[in-house]
Amino acid sequence: MKRIILWWIQFVVWLARNQFPILEDINRFRADGLLSLIDTLTQEAERTGSLGEHKNVYVHTATCAECYRQGKQIPRKRDINLCIEWVIRQY
Questions:
Q1: Per the confidence metrics, is the pTM higher than 0.85?
Q2: Calpha distance 15→38 (Å, rounded)
Q3: What is the spatial distance between Cα 14 and Cα 16, in angstroms, rounded to a whole number?
Q4: pLDDT per residue as tens digits for the range 67-78
């Protein structure tokens, strides 16, 4: 029992340490306006009722198009996916 508790504590500490870079990325996206853009697009995609992969492609395409239209650098696919996951977990 003691081993399980110690393992759990180590796991929780490891998990907490690895969450901070994600929070730094989210704060950077929030400052850039990317998070609010993806929040709007994700809510719009959820209202359509289409399949999950189609929603993901829609959000990626619309984000890239909006960034291109505004003259901003197009974000990496990893960053868009992170923002989508963050937005979905908030609701």
A1: no
A2: 26
A3: 5
A4: 999 999 999 999
CB 42 within 8 A of CB 88: yes
CA geometry: angle 34, 47, 90, nearest 5 deg: 50
One-character DSSP codes across the chain: -HHHHHHHHHHHHHHHHHHHHHHHHHHHHHHHTHHHHHHHHHHHHHHHT--HHHHHHHHHHHHHHHHHHHTPPPPPHHHHHHHHHHHHHH-
How is residue 69 written in tokens? 């239209």
Contact 17, 62 (CB under 8 A): no
